Structure formats: structure tokens, C-alpha cells
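Review form for a predicted model. The reviewer records the input and the model, then writes brief findings.
Reviewer: anonymous (R2)
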Amino acid sequence: MMGEQLRLWSDAEPLHNVFFAIKPDAKAAAHVADLARHLSGNLRLIGNRVPPARLHVSLLGVGGFYGKCPASVIDDARSAAGAVAVAPFNVRFDRVACFNGGAGVKALVLTGDEGAASLRSLRKTLHRAMAERGLGHRKRSAFTPHLTMMYADRALRPVSVDPVCWTVDAFVLIDSLVAQSRHVLLGRWPRVARDEPPTNARGMRTAMHLAV
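Model under review:
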């Protein structure tokens, strides 16, 4: 199983980066697009804005593959996702930060504090469910929840912006086709409704089951 996951990249075949993420709703995605357009125009940035359909907040990687994604790995990732259930929660991204995108490119991202703890908890739960199925890394890397809205030619100082908010009521499994600017949705798992059985202090149902 683990031998199928991280393979050497091959220039001759499509590259796949498979990961779990959350996606903004249509209203929030449009807001992000407006912010990126405003920053790009006002500051005369040279670069590429992320299309609304590909906006996301990465949660946890499954693996990188060439040729095609191993069916057994995807099945196990879906099984792990189906074992996770948390109540819906709100997120609020109200700051623009700059990350190093490599090759001199700067990633302009949205960050914020509201919902960050819930996102970390969801990531931790997904990591545990994946580990139980022999997937993922034993140790989790550092995680700063963020949404990349564009890649620019230069860095910007952190700045506050009009907040982008939405209610997270699902998470998804994405196959990102590297260098093709295309995302393929491999699965979507809705959250537990607010009127379902009570959650514990961390916002997770005790049974840890979710009907998909």
C-alpha cells in the first residue's frame, strides 16, 4: 500500500496531487475573486489569479502519483473520509499574507483566526483515520489554514481586507492535475447537521460515523 503512494514524477505522464480540502461557497468564491482582482489592479501585480472553481483550503495530502492514481489508495482515502464527522462551523479569512511559491513566485493567500481551530481539529481527525488505513505520514507537518487567491511576481506586506466568510458544511477529496490547472473531484462528504446528536467539546460526534 505505502509503496503505491509517493512515486517519482515522470515528465511523460500526468502528475497527480491528491489531497483533502474545503471549498468556499459560491458567494465566498466570488468575493475572493473580487479581492484578487482589486489587489492585482491597484498594486499592478503581474501573475495569475486562481479561478473561483479551484479556490480551496488544503487540509491534508494523500499522495503524489504519476500515470494514474492507484484505486486502492483512493478507496482507502474515501473510507477514511467516511469515518469522519464533525458539526458545521464558520470560517473567516480577513488578512492577506504572502507565502513563497517557489521559483521566485509569491503566493498571495487569505488567512484568519475564526474557524482555524476547527480546521486543525478536522485535519487531525482525518490524519488519524488515514493512519488507521495505512495512509499518510506518521507525523503531521505544520498547518496554517489559508486560501491561495493568486500567484504574483512580488511579495506584499500583510494587510487586513474585507472578510471572506462561509459555513463549512462539507470537505472534499481532490485530484489536482499538476501543470494542467485542473481539479478533479474524487469525493465529497457533508457534515453532520446541527440538529443531529450532540457533539463533544471538540465538535465531533462520539460515534464518529457519517452516512454519505
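Findings: The first strand starts at residue 15 and ends at 22.
Further findings: Confidence is low (pLDDT under 50) at residues 1-10, 194-212.
Recommendation: see findings above.
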